Amino acid sequence: MNPEHVIVETRDWIEKAVIGLNLCPFAKAVYIKNQVRIVVSSARHLDAFLEDLDRELDHLAEVDPDVTDTTLLIHPTLFPDFLDFNDVHQIADEAVAEHGLEGVIQIASFHPLYQFEGTEPDDITNYTNRAPYPTLHLIREASLDKAVEAFPEAETIYERNIETMNKLGIAGWLALGMAHTRKNG
């Protein structure tokens, strides 16, 4: 798959859903300052993808946050199954520890078939974590801490997102042009 196309669709998702719906109130500031690094992996197997992850963890740990505050590591084809990708997320968390970056970097995951435990596959609330492609989001904890300080009720983001998604519904999501994040239905 063409990496440029993957980046275009990912930016579209960031702009229309993540920022446009304010699913993450912290995203806009780093995005407009061009501090979001988007890396498309072309690894042919899990081990090679994990090597890409190692490089990105090292890069994020070494680079000035004003240059790169956060990284999206995407693989468009290697992880079509959400549960398999969820296992990769656990391995990625272990990699953070292996790099000595616990408390420095944390990882969030997004997937076209993301499903919260206890929900049905097409429950609209799953769409808060649905991206066009399987994506690991490497986040600096210091930046997250600063953002949470600036957003006094950060613990309400999750509830507000559920409310936003319930009001929007699948039809509203698709009207945003997010059909590429709805690969299962």
How would you characterize the overall build of this protein?
By secondary structure, the chain is of the alpha+beta class. The chain has one domain (3-181). It contains six helices and four strands. Strands 1-2-4-3 form a four-stranded mixed β-sheet, with helices on both faces. β1, α3 (46-62) and β2 (70-74) form a beta-alpha-beta unit. α3 crosses α4 (82-98). The chain is globular and about 40 Å long. The two termini are 22 Å apart.
Which characteristics define this entry?
185 residues, alpha+beta, 4-stranded mixed β-sheet, 6 helices, 4 strands, 46% helix
Number of domains: 1
Structure classification: alpha+beta
The sequence of SSEs as H and E is HHEHEHEEHH
Q: Which range best describes the helical content: under 10%, 10-25%, 25-40%, 40-55%, 55-70% or over 70%?
A: 40-55%
Largest sheet: 4 strands, mixed
Overall radius of gyration: 16 Å
What is the total tally of β strands? 4
Q: Report strand %.
A: 5-15%
Low-confidence stretches at least 5 residues in length (pLDDT < 50)? none
* Biggest sheet strand line-up: 1-2-4-3
Q: Outline, from the CA principal axes?
A: globular
Overall pLDDT confidence: 93
Task: Count every helix, treating DSSP H or I runs of 4 or more residues as helices.
Answer: 6
| Span of the ends, CA to CA | 22 Å
Layout of helices and strands:
Layout: H1 3-19, H2 27-32, E1 36-40, H3 46-62, E2 70-74, H4 82-98, E3 105-110, E4 135-140, H5 141-150, H6 157-175
Parallel strand pairs: 1-2
Antiparallel strand pairs: 2-4, 3-4
Helix pairs in contact: 3-4
